[in-house]
Amino acid sequence: MNTDQKKAKTNTKHARLTIQDTLDVVGGKWKLVLIFILSDGKKKFNELSREAGITPRILSKELQELEMNDLVIRTVCDTKPVTVEYSLTEYSKSLSDVIIAMCKWGENHRKKIVG
Amino acid sequence: MNTDQKKAKTNTKHARLTIQDTLDVVGGKWKLVLIFILSDGKKKFNELSREAGITPRILSKELQELEMNDLVIRTVCDTKPVTVEYSLTEYSKSLSDVIIAMCKWGENHRKKIVG
Fold this sequence. Notes:
2 copies of one chain form a homodimer.
Chain A: H1 3-26, H2 31-38, E1 43-44, H3 45-52, H4 56-68, E2 72-77, E3 83-88, H5 96-114
């Protein structure tokens, strides 16, 4: 392998790892969907669960992971009974290109399948 | 809810479903990584397994799903022993915007974390 080939191989590996990083943070069935729903504005836990069609147990885990990665903010509201609200962080906006690209692809894919 | 609000809600739901469609087809830990690796050119099953670091059992399942969705072509080569090669379809190129957006985001996210 010459220097250029080695460099190309290192670049490819690096790019593959960056995709894996992204998938580690927002991969899975729900995270990008939740971010998309929250882009509409803050939501209460129960609203999110209903809108996304996710069971509370899974939703709770997904939101916790999003919070850990600075993509979602959890706010406990001093109401009776206590309610918990979720909203997007400024940082989450950096995902807009990923979300837009996925929307467009899904749209085209649906057309392809429906024919 | 007035007509505009209803329309906005319908559009939001539609966009959410298109994201879910995309995640149904290329979501999960491996599919986009495999497509990225194959963008380099066709690979034998064992090469793919080694390069991606996926067990043969999972790789086989992932490739089968990619093939079903017209993203990957499986070719049986008349060698001794028989080998199986995988390559990308023309249609898989439609995912390039998704892959590029994910590469960029992963790159920035890594910088953010490393600081």
